[in-house]
């Protein structure tokens, strides 16, 4: 996608999907969340306290105060307490103040300086490892400058790399960023042959989706719509038939959710207000943390509002041999 076209599309999005930078009408709540199991609210943060309304699994509640063990919630107008572990799919009402629980923002971007095989350290389905290749771009989740040990997240496992294995550049804090600075990023991994005999189609779909978002500019107060930029699933010529991850069978656009997961995971780093997204299952997917799962389809979009006071630009890179994709954001001019 050419940069000029990306800016044009972003301008269309601003016209079609304006969103307010104000969250004044939601300041009484920290999050919206879903019930993970059936439970009864308590009138105090104690298992022995009086039971209040019954909350069924899958129902939405408003989180007034989140705590490591107990959270104060509101359900159908009644206020009580629930164990925080009974809740999931948190949506922050003010991402400047309230980060999504259990989400760890990456530290920076890295360039692999050597080949590294993760055999014995990570596993997904029937695949036991991912090969990180020299020259490959990866997201570094943690970095110890004293030991030069960088930690990457592959599927659901944090893996420490040997000193010198990767050259690390930290993200610039968004409040200090200048034009061209990288402020956020994320990487997802899948084996090259995943989804056989449709693995070639799957990789085509991933590249297709990234090309349609690459260089897109998101202006302050503008709503990002994944489907507006990368949609067209099911349309002849847009995407190829491939295995549906987290579902069954094959469909045009199969595999594109790896890119929606990627973009969503990065968006959680920044003061982007998530407006809509879906999960593949209540437990998420095996190749990403539960908090980072985000599905898209003809009926489900991923949307979020840029609450920063400057525009950002999307950039993608990928490693074809392992179907590893990295997205990062720069502060636009």
Explain the overall architecture:
With 333 residues, the chain is α+β, with helices and mostly antiparallel strands. The chain has two domains: 3-20 and 171-331, no CATH class; 24-92, SH3 type barrels. 14% of the residues lie in helices and 34% in strands. The protein contains four helices and 24 strands. Strands 6-5-4-1-7 form a five-stranded antiparallel sheet, with no helix packed on it. A four-stranded antiparallel sheet has the order 16-24-23-17. Strands 11-8-15 form a three-stranded antiparallel sheet, with no helix packed on it. Strand 4 (60-65) and strand 5 (70-75) form a beta hairpin. It is globular. 41% of the residues are buried. Residues 1-18 and 20-27 have low confidence and may be disordered.
Helical residue percent band: 10-25%
- Would you count the extended β strands for me? 24
User: Which ranges are low-confidence, i.e. pLDDT below 50, for 5 or more consecutive residues?
Assistant: 1-18, 20-27
What structural category characterises the helix and strand content?
A: alpha+beta
The number of helices is 4
Tell me the major beta sheet: 5 strands, antiparallel
Give the overall silhouette.
Answer: globular
The total domain count is 2
Strand content: 25-35%
Q: How would you spell out the order of helices and strands?
A: HEEEEEEEEEEEEEEEEHEEHEEHEEEE
Cα-atom Rg, whole angstroms?
A: 20 Å
Give the spatial strand order of the biggest sheet. 6-5-4-1-7
The end-to-end distance, rounded to whole angstroms, is 18 Å
Mean pLDDT: 90
């Amino acid at each position: 996608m050419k940069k000029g076209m990306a800016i044009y599309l972003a301008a269309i999005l601003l016209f079609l999907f304006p969103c307010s930078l104000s969250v004044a009408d939601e300041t009484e709540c920290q999050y919206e969340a879903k019930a993970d199991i059936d439970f009864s609210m308590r009138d105090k943060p104690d298992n022995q306290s009086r039971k209040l309304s019954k909350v069924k699994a899958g129902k939405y509640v408003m989180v007034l105060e989140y705590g490591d063990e107990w959270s104060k919630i509101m359900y159908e107008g009644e206020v009580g307490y629930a164990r925080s572990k009974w809740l999931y799919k948190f949506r922050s009402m003010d991402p400047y103040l309230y980060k999504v629980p259990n989400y760890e923002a990456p530290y920076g971007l890295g360039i692999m300086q050597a080949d590294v095989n993760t055999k014995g350290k990570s596993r997904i389905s029937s695949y036991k490892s991912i090969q990180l290749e020299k020259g490959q771009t990866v997201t570094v989740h943690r970095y110890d400058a004293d030991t030069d040990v960088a930690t990457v997240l592959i599927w659901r496992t944090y893996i420490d790399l040997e000193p010198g294995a990767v050259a690390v550049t930290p993200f610039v804090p968004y409040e200090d960023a200048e034009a061209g600075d990288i402020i956020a990023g994320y990487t997802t991994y899948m084996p090259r042959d995943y989804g056989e005999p449709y693995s070639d189609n799957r990789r085509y779909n991933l590249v297709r989706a990234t090309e349609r978002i690459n260089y897109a500019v998101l202006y302050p107060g503008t709503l990002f719509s994944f489907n507006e930029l990368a949609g067209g699933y099911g349309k002849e010529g847009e995407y190829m038939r491939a295995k549906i991850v987290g579902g069954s069978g094959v469909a045009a656009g199969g595999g594109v959710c790896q890119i929606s997961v990627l973009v969503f995971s990065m968006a959680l780093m920044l003061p982007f207000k998530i407006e809509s997204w879906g999960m593949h299952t209540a437990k998420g997917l095996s190749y990403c943390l539960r908090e980072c799962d985000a599905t898209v389809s003809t009926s489900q979009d991923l949307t979020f509002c840029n609450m920063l006071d400057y525009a950002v630009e999307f950039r993608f890179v990928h490693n074809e041999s392992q179907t590893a994709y990295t997205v990062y954001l720069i502060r636009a001019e």
